[in-house]
Write a structure and sequence with these properties.
It is built from 11 helices and no strands. The protein starts with 11 loop residues before the first helix and ends with a helix.
Amino acid sequence: MSAPTTVRAGSAAAWRLALRPRTLLIAVVPVVVGTAFAQRHAGDVDLAVAALALAVSLLLQAIVNLQNDVGYTVRGGEHVDRVGAREGLPRATALGVLSVRAVRVAIVGAVALALLAGLPLVARAGAPAAALGLLSIAAALAYMGGPRPIAYTPFGELTVLAFFGWAACAGTFYVLTLALAPAVLLAATAIGMLAGAVLAVNNLRDAEHDRASGRRTFAVCFGARAARRLYAALLWT
């Protein structure tokens, strides 16, 4: 697959292709909602802490996107693309506009920044914040990395619900208030379901390609009808 003439190798456009900035709203919304709930609960919040929580969430989404891009390429997904089965956005490393090494270096940098930004949150909220942060980083790396990537299983939507719903929204509330509340958990579930719906519809669209490349997503394992029902259920918020 050749690179589009509009994207130069190593350019800002190439990095935008890998980072997928439009998906970053998935990381922004739960932090904003968690902060709003914390403001209502406590009457006042530390905006510096909220900003750090937002930075961590954005970095986690960036790690997922970069790992998805490079993991797709090293697993040979671009070869399946050549038969025309995949309809989603192109991968920067598969196009050759970014090297696998460059993207992996960027992933290491993003992980380091997430750990650095998370240190004040751990100092404030203790072991729960540390555990949540480390689990979130591990999940972001494991989405398309390791011997059994999450993206190759039927559990992608559930993972998104857990980390970009419960963890991001309720976690933000916790580091701001050092408490949890049923209302914020309900909101976190709704936000996570919407984020999961984004993945569900993408996996439904790419089911043929995923099957050919060995991915066992929910849509591949259970079929289009079940995938549409899952999508409808996730939109029921």
